[in-house]
Amino acid sequence: MSIYVPNTDREQQEMLEACGFQSFDDLYALIPEELKRKEALDIPEGKPEMEVRQLLQEMAGKNRVYASVFRGAGAYRHFIPAIVGSVTGKEEFRTAYTPYQAEISQGLLQSIFEYQTDICELTGLAASNAGVYDGATAAAEACEMCRDRKRSKALVSASVDPKILSVVRTYAFGRDAEVVLIPERDGVTDLDALQGMLDDATACVLIQQPNYYGCEENAARTAEIAHSAGAKLIMSCNPIALAVMKTPGECGADIAVGEGQPLGMPLQFGGPYLGFMAADEKMTRRLPGRIVGETTDMNGERCYVLTMQAREQHIRREKAGSNICSNEALCALTAAVYLAAMGPEGLRSVALSCHANAHYLRNALSQAGLRPLHDRPFFHEFVTQADRAELVPEILQALDREGILGGLDLGEGRMLWCATEMNRRASMDKAAQIVKEVLCR
Amino acid sequence: MKLIFERSVPGRKTEYIPLPDVPCPEPEFERRGTKLRLPELSEVQVDRHYTELAGETRGVNGGFYPLGSCTMKYNPPMAEVCAALPGFADVHPLQTDESIQGCLEVMDMTERILAEITGMDAMTLQPAAGAHGEFTGLLLIKAFHRSRGDTLRRKILVPDSAHGTNPASAAMAGFEVVNIPSDSRGYVDLEELKKRLGPDTAGLMLTNPNTVGLFDPQISEITRAVHEAGGLNYYDGANLNAIMGIVRPGDMGFDVVHVNLHKTFATPHGGGGPGSGPVGCKAFLSDFLPGFRVRGEKELKRENAASRIGDVRSFGGNFTVVVKALAYLLSIGREGVPRTASNAVLNANYLMHRLRDVYPMAFDQTCMHEFVITLEKLREETGVSAMDIAKTLIDYGMHPPTMYCPLIVHEALMVEPTETESRETLDAAADAFRDALEQARLHPEEGHLRPLTTRIRRPDEVRAARKPVIRYDFGD
Ligand SMILES: Cc1ncc(COP(=O)(O)O)c(C=O)c1O
To answer: Looking at beta carbons, which residues of chain B come within 8 Å of A114?
Structure first.
């Protein structure tokens, strides 16, 4: 057993006595006896490091890691340069708390300021916070930013990732606010339907770019429609796609959010990930959570501090816009280091590589007999339709046997596929070949 | 220090990925027109930049970090090694149950251990931090009352000493917040609590030990009173480190709890996250739990609870943080849990004991894992504030305690040493505290200027907030 208590039993006894106690029981004298636990907890006994690591290694060994991954749907396997882990593994970053003490936290504060700048650059918007829990909570917090006394309803496109929708709904349940689904038509938000749904209780419209099915949304038009009814537009974006796609700023969005995981974070079974949030200048003070600002110290030196804290829970308590305290700081640092390593050129080549591979894969699957469901511009995800829906599980099993994680089964013969820069031609050809064999059987 | 953008040189780059070996069609979607001004650097520059930033960042690895309420204990590297195993790191969250038996085993085992420690029947690992857990737990309470058609229960009682996230979470869950005053001993004022209970009570949020570091001995009476009024009891587990293995929230009458893996269970705080805030509840609330539940004996599978409140984030939570907490729990184990708690309490009492003759304690009695100093008198006499003393401690190489928390104690410093500090560290810290106080009395005017030894002196926070500059100005 390792318990990470440095003091020996003898030292502990001496310390107890120094304070005037005889035993540990004296420390807990105020706890009513009848509440105290009489028997030991029913949990495993302590083990030395070697055994703990062997146990966890065994558990990790029960998971399947695929050589080829063609599944995204909110979590994407990208290449992560070694420098990313090397920086984020630095003990100072890893073991620091939130930078409340600016004088000894300039490194951390500056890294967040740099991250905020990166997010503003990616989204084309003026203000970013230090991040929230994940892409879905970012969308939910964004809806909250748009609500006021008169307007509380959120219109969410049916082409938004259902996991995001689920979280938006949960947060709305908290605030007793309404969430209404905008129908999807041909793989994108039905803008005619949206026109008829907006009213003066509508706070915001939420779309995803590219959307859950991988298709490009007409975001600029959506912004016009939302704004004409006095509602805000929130765009949930893929950060890699932002290197090449029209930005939320250019589309006229008021808020951009998204899942930051593609920026250097491993899949790790769903987390930790990172929710990024950026807003138009006018909405800066409605952003939730930490924000780092530049200022000067008493000698006029440039420095960084947590700022606009009057928005936050520790000052405003129940009147705060959000309860968020700890966020995902190390993930924000991961994103910043990833972006610094890649640079603008590198990020663009990742994006274009994803795009090229996804187009190749779609073609190959189409030739193998899986028809593309939508005929629209797309980035790195797309949906296929199998004529015989019952073959989808077979396709996935056949791929699985070859160490390939196939597209996500959306039901009714539809599958959502993804390709990133990690997929090479040979593996895509192989996947298509396996699909063909199943379909021709 | 230069900003990373100021180090940028056009054209500098490292190639990390090969060109695609497939045709590259021109994208059909609308392209971005705005230049993307990410920094352009060689890898060695990136490395040096962040090494410089790390040099101006203070972590627990660097020394004593007695930040009250944050439980800044040592974060064992072996947990990092476990979390980084490819069998965990490279698993897609949307794989089949059959292909993720190991992940589900980690979750199942962690849930069982946490449920046993807290005295709860069921857990969810989906919440990503403490505040997120509070929100989740309060939604369980809301869903419970709703399911019984009990729509009048709109009020959540919160002690005035509570952490800011408590009232903020209650508001996010749609409740009205009712403050409960503390009595002169630092406990919940029982009479005042009872006056506020009624048919509109949805529940009570409490941490015990409370935010002044005391175990409230009236706890059973408090939770009973809330139950009798038809409300539920929520336990904020931020302070669980003091009592784990000694007494369980479930046995104190709580119905819902959250724990902070990034405090009590030694996962690193990462400069503000990622954390993890699992929520536990009694059986009658388990059908409302969010996310998926892990079910099954040999073949584990994911299943949604019958009337779940939905999801509070995507997927199953901050999974690799859970792996780290499990590695820690397996390491300290059955005997280590209470020993950890009692040493956390011992260290706090030892440090308090070494300071109490010169530092006025807000509540001068046996404390739990932390204690609160009040410098109101010092401020009156010398003008030196709690912040001045905190900043002075920086000059002694220490991370300061939590300042001005809880709000009910004037000029508060909240000190939580944790169990992972040795006696000599505590002795050195005590000397620093004492010396800082002496310096403050000798040179009060200097107190306002401290720290004196850091590259950056006190920042102008007013200026930062008045005209916010929150991103780099590229000068165009
Ligand atoms: C008593 C208490 N409750 C809740 C929280 C919030 O936890 P988190 O920062 O993980 O959201 C904290 C964090 O400092 C705390 O001290």
So the answer is: 3-5, 472
Burial class from Cβ neighbours inside 10 Å (0-12, 13-18, 19+) for residue A49 reads middle
% helix, strand, coil for chain B, step of 5: 40, 10, 50
Return the pLDDT at A1: 66
A227 and A349 belong to one structural domain: no
ipTM of model over 0.90: yes
Task: Say whether pLDDT at A181 is over 70.
Answer: yes
User: Is a pLDDT exceeding 70 seen at residue B80?
Assistant: yes
Domain of residue A431, CATH code: 3.90.1150.10
Contact predicate A361/A417, CB 8 Å? yes
Q: What is the pTM of this model?
A: 0.98
Cβ count near B86 (within 10 Å): 12
Runs of H (alpha helix) within B148-267: 165-172, 190-196, 219-228
* Residue A421, domain member (yes or no): yes
Does the pLDDT of residue B342 top 70, yes or no?
A: yes
Q: Are A361 and A298 contained in the same domain?
A: no
For chain A, give the mean pLDDT: 97
Percent of chain B with pLDDT over 70: 100
Q: Is B61 on the interface with A (CB under 8 A)?
A: yes
Distance CA B327, CA B268 (A): 13
End-to-end CA distance of chain A: 56
At B151-179, the pLDDT tens digits run: 999 999 999 999 999 999 999 999 999 99
- Residue A216 shares a structural domain with residue A364: no
A189 and A124 in a common domain: yes
At A44, which helix (H) or strand (E)?
none
Is residue A50 domain-resident? no
Taking the centre of ligand 1 as the mean of its atom positions, its distance from the CA of residue B71, in whole angstroms, is 10
| Structural domains in chain B plus CATH codes | 78-331 (3.40.640.10)
- Per residue in B249-260, pLDDT (tens digit) is 999 999 999 999
Q: Where are the alpha helices (DSSP H) in B398-456?
A: 423-442, 444-447
A132 in Cβ contact with A171 (< 8 Å): no
Helices (H), A124-161: 135-146
Identify whether A139 is part of a domain: yes
CA dihedral A67, A70, A74, A79 (to 10 degrees): 50
CA–CA separation, B226 vs B204, rounded Å?
Answer: 7
pLDDT tens, position by position, B92-127: 999 999 999 999 999 999 999 999 999 999 999 999
Is residue A112 a part of any domain in this protein? yes
Q: Last residue of a domain, which of A302, A319, A338?
A: A338
Q: Are residues A75 and A88 in the same domain?
A: no
- Contact between A345 and B13 under an 8 Å Cβ cutoff? The reply is yes
Please indicate, yes or no, whether residues A320 and A208 belong to a single structural domain of this protein: yes
**Are B471 and A120 inside 8 Å of each other by CB?**
yes
B52 touches A at CB < 8 Å: yes
Answer for the pair A289, A130: CB distance below 8 angstroms, yes or no. yes
**Closest by Cα among A147, A349, A161 to A237:** A161
Ligand 1 site, CB within 6 A = A 325-326; B 69-70, 129-131, 163, 165, 207, 211, 236, 238, 260, 275, 277
Report, in angstroms and rounded to the nearest whole number, the Rg of chain B calculated over CA atoms: 25
Give just the sign of the alpha carbon dihedral A363, A367, A368, A372.
positive
Kindly determine whether residue A65 and residue B320, on different chains, have CB atoms separated by under 8 Å.
no
For the stretch A413-423, pLDDT in tens is 999 999 999 99
Which domain, by its residues, includes A32?
Answer: 1-37
Last residue of one domain, picked from the residues A338, A358, A386: A338
How many domains is chain A built from?
3
Task: Check whether residue A12 and residue A156 sit in a common domain.
Answer: no
A332 lies in the same domain as A406: no
